[in-house]
Design a protein that fits this description.
The strands form 2 sheets. Strands 1-8-5-4-2-3 form a 6-stranded parallel β-sheet, with helices on both faces. Strands 6-7 form a two-stranded antiparallel sheet. The protein has helices spanning 23-28, 40-43, 46-57, 74-87, 98-110, 187-206, 212-234, 239-259, 263-275, 279-294, 299-308, 318-335, 354-362, 376-386, and strands at residues 11-14, 33-37, 61-65, 91-96, 135-139, 151-156, 161-166, 174-177. The protein has 2 domains: 11-182, 3-Layer(aba) Sandwich (Rossmann fold); 187-386, Dehydroquinate synthase-like, alpha domain (Up-down Bundle). The model has no long low-confidence stretch (mean pLDDT 95). The protein contains 14 helices and 8 strands. By secondary structure, the chain is α/β, with parallel strands linked by helices.
Length: 388
C-alpha cells in the first residue's frame, strides 16, 4: 500500500437548529466581533433571518455583508477584504453556497496576507504564509463541500477562467451543518449542487491519488446521493433526505480534498470561466462523458460505482458493470431535469469557445491524477459529444 496523508481538520457540528446557537463557537475561538457574509438571496430567507435573530438574542457583536456574488471575481473579493478590515471584525461566518464560502475564505486569507487575491491564484506570485482570520461556514446547499475544503475558487474575468487559491489554512475552523438551512433551496439548486457532490466523490474515487480512507468517504457519498437526491429535490421539506444530502456533500468534499479531482472539474472550470456555466450544471452535464473516457483506467471502481448507485451488476463482466455506472449517472441527471446538452444551457457553450476551454482544461492542476491521461483531442471529443 502506498504512503498517504489524510486531512480533515474542520470541526463539524451537525444538527437541526445548530445555526441558531453560534455564540459558544465564537467564544471557543476568541472571536469578539464577527462579519456575517452571504448573498442577497440567502439574506432574504427565513433561515437566515432566524440565524441573525439567534445572534441578536445571544448579544453577539456582528456586522453584515450581503454582497457576495456567484462565481466571485477577483475585484469583488479584493473589495470585500477591504470592507472586512474596515469593520474591525476578527472572524467571519459564511452563510450560503460555495460562492459565499469561497468569498469568505479569500477575505479571511487576504486580511492577514498582503496583496490581491489574483497574486495567490494558481500560477500566481504569492503563497499563503499567515493563518487567515477564523472562519465558520454554514452551508445552505449540499454540493460544493466548501465548508470543509482548502480551496477558494475565484473568477478571473480578464482571462475568462476560474482559478483557485488552495492552501490548508483556508479550511474553515468549523462547519455548522444545519439541514433546516437547506429547506428553502430551489429544486434545480438542490439537483445541481447534489450532482456537484457526486462528481467530487466519483472523481476522487477513481483518482490516481485515491487511498483507503478517501475511498471510504467517496463510496458512502455516492451511495447516500443515489438514495436521497431525488427525494431531496422533489420533496424539499423531507428533512431526513436533506440531512443525508448535507452529510454526503461533506463526505464527497473530504474525499476530494485528499484524493483530488480530474477531467470533469478541469473542463467545467474552464467552461465556467468563459460561459459562466453554473458549476453543478456543468459538472452534471460533463460527468457521464468523462466517465466513458475514464472507465478503462479503473473498471473495477466504476463497476463498484454502478452498484453503489443501485444498479444490478450480478452476472456481468467487470467492463459491462463499469459501463452501467455511466448509465446510472445519466439516468439520475435525467430524473433531476438537468440539461444534457451544451446547447440547452442558459448561456450556450458554442464551438467557437472550444479552443479556449481546451486550453484552460489542459492547464488544470489536478488533470495529472485523472485515471487516464487526458489529451487535447479527448477534451475536444467530450465537448463535441456534449454539444448534441
Amino acid at each position: 500500500m502506498k504512503d498517504f496523508i489524510f486531512k480533515l481538520p474542520t470541526k463539524i457540528i451537525f444538527g437541526e437548529g445548530t445555526s441558531l446557537n453560534i455564540k459558544p463557537v465564537l467564544d471557543q475561538y476568541g472571536i469578539r466581533k464577527v462579519m456575517v457574509v452571504t448573498d442577497g438571496g440567502i439574506a432574504s430567507t427565513q433561515g437566515f433571518k432566524d440565524l441573525i435573530a439567534g445572534l441578536d438574542s445571544q448579544k453577539v457583536d456582528y456586522v453584515l455583508f450581503t454582497e457576495a456574488i456567484a462565481d466571485p471575481p477577483i475585484e469583488a473579493v479584493d473589495e470585500a477584504k477591504d470592507i472586512l478590515l474596515e469593520s474591525g471584525a476578527d472572524g467571519v461566518i459564511a452563510v450560503g453556497g460555495g460562492s459565499s464560502i469561497d468569498t469568505s475564505k479569500a477575505m479571511c486569507m487576504l486580511a492577514t496576507n498582503e496583496g490581491s487575491v489574483r497574486e495567490y491564484l494558481f500560477g500566481g506570485t504569492k503563497t499563503v504564509t499567515n493563518r487567515p482570520l477564523p472562519l465558520i461556514a454554514i452551508p445552505t446547499t449540499a454540493g460544493s463541500g466548501s465548508e470543509v475544503t482548502a480551496a477558494s475558487v475565484i473568477t478571473d474575468n480578464q482571462n475568462n477562467i476560474k482559478l483557485s487559491v488552495t492552501h490548508e489554512y483556508l479550511m474553515p475552523l468549523v462547519a455548522i451543518v444545519d439541514p433546516l438551512m437547506h429547506i428553502g433551496m430551489p429544486p434545480m439548486i438542490t439537483a445541481s449542487t447534489g450532482m456537484d457532490a457526486l462528481t467530487h466523490a466519483i472523481e476522487a474515487y477513481v483518482s490516481l491519488n485515491a487511498e483507503p480512507i478517501s475511498d471510504m468517504y467517496a463510496e458512502k457519498c455516492i451511495e447516500m446521493i443515489g438514495k436521497n437526491i431525488r427525494t431531496a429535490m422533489f420533496n424539499p421539506t423531507n428533512i431526513e433526505a436533506r440531512s443525508q444530502m448535507a452529510i454526503a456533500s461533506i463526505l464527497g468534499a473530504a474525499a476530494m480534498v485528499n484524493a483530488g479531482l480530474g477531467a470533469v472539474h478541469g473542463i467545467s472550470q474552464a467552461m465556467g470561466g468563459i460561459a459562466h456555466t453554473p458549476h453543478g450544471i456543468g459538472n452534471s452535464l460533463l460527468l457521464p462523458y468523462v466517465m466513458e473516457m475514464n472507465v478503462p483506467g479503473n473498471p473495477a471502481k466504476f463497476a463498484k460505482i454502478a452498484k453503489l448507485l443501485g444498479e444490478n451488476i450480478e452476472g456481468l463482466s467487470e467492463r459491462d458493470a463499469a459501463e452501467l455506472s455511466v448509465k446510472a449517472v445519466r439516468k439520475m441527471a435525467f430524473d433531476l431535469r438537468i440539461p444534457d446538452s451544451l446547447k440547452d444551457l442558459d448561456i450556450p457553450v458554442t464551438p467557437d469557445m472550444f479552443d479556449t476551454i481546451v486550453d484552460g482544461t489542459m492547464g488544470y492542476r489536478l488533470l495529472a491524477v485523472n485515471p487516464v491521461k487526458v489529451r487535447r483531442e479527448d477534451v475536444y471529443a467530450i465537448l463535441e459529444k456534449a454539444n448534441h
